[in-house]
Design goal:
The chain has 82 residues and is mainly alpha-helical. The chain is built from 4 helices and 2 strands. It has one domain: DNA polymerase, domain 1 (Orthogonal Bundle), CATH 1.10.150. Strands 1-2 form a two-stranded parallel ribbon. The longest helix is centred in the N-terminal third of the chain and has 14 residues. The radius of gyration is 12 Å and the shape is globular. The termini are far apart. Keywords: Signal. One of its GO terms (biological process) is DNA repair. GO terms for molecular function: DNA binding. Pfam families: HHH_3.
């Protein structure tokens, strides 16, 4: 079942960007250089402060400019609801 979920997530990456303000942990781990622990840190960070743009990912410990640049074409940040 996990394999099927990963295949589906993989195909979704081909057609849609990952929204860092609403993506779940599994969706975030499909990004290059983002494992389970960094995905969890992104989710935890946005509970206190939503991302106004993709570049604000730099505020998450362990995520640098190189990681953002590797994934930029696959990232988006929806409008903050708070």
């Amino acid at each position: 079942m996990k394999i099927l979920a990963m295949v589906i997530l993989g195909f979704s990456m081909l057609f849609a960007a990952v929204d860092i303000n609403i993506a779940n942990k599994d969706e975030l781990t499909t990004l290059k250089g983002i494992g389970a622990s960094k995905a969890e840190m992104i989710v935890k960070h946005r509970k206190t402060k939503c991302f106004k743009n993709v570049d604000e990912l730099i505020e998450v410990k362990g995520i640098g400019e190189k990681t953002i640049e590797k994934n930029r074409k696959n990232l988006t940040a929806s409008k903050c609801k708070k």
